[in-house]
Amino acid sequence: MILHSVQIVWAALGGILRKICTRGVLDRLCHCDHKCRMNLTPRPLEPTALAHDRVYRHMRSRIMHGDLPPGTPLTLRGIGAEYEVSMTPAREAVRRLAAEGALTMSTSGRITTPALSNERIEELASLRALIEVELASRALPRAHLALIERLQNINNAVAEAVSQRDAVSYIRANLEFHRTLYLRAQAPAMLAMAETVWLQMGPTMRALYGRLRRTEPPQFHRLIITALRAGDEPGLRLAVRSDVTQGLRMLAS
Length: 253
Fold this sequence. Notes:
This protein is mainly alpha-helical. The chain is built from 12 helices and 3 strands; from the N terminus they run ααααβααββαααααα. The chain has 2 domains: 2-112, Winged helix-like DNA-binding domain superfamily/Winged helix DNA-binding domain (Arc Repressor Mutant, subunit A, Orthogonal Bundle), CATH 1.10.10.10; 118-252, GntR ligand-binding domain-like (Four Helix Bundle (Hemerythrin (Met), subunit A), Up-down Bundle), CATH 1.20.120. The chain has a 3-stranded antiparallel sheet.
């Protein structure tokens, strides 16, 4: 099952890598004349493409942050009406999200947010432990005081969301905490893989929050900050691994 998740992650990563092939890169590789380079100039985006990207990005954010519970049914007509677009951009956005594992599509065309089995939860928790522990370890040498202060401020926002019983704000702030740390790893491909896993788990994280009924922010965030201040790599790795797996495995048990 882990192999299946890695394949989904790599499929999503392929799309990200294609985006970074800019005209500047093509110019360096193309040994043709000025007329040839002029032909490489991207055409202006069509309104349909712009609409598709807008729908995709907004739906992706909603799914990743748990705004939609597991098993939520969706229709192309409903998506089109919500975002005021035609069926074509709605369909393309759904296809793109399905390729990333953010949505499931049945053979009959039924579209839903993922409702993960216990085995799938365990699988994705293992992926988080592999990827995010490595990202944290790589970020540690660049964890300056300003970053640590920023993480503390984000953790305060996590605590506020918990006190307000706001699941979506909690998940959003929690992922911001991790993303802010992992950006210091300067490993964009690994971070893209981590975000694809988060995307698949967004609805499940919403269900987990409801089950745990938290009354205080995750204790492991404090341990992560403490380890960063001390430059304690073993402590940091343990704190991150515990933070990204403990709750999920409670959900699967």
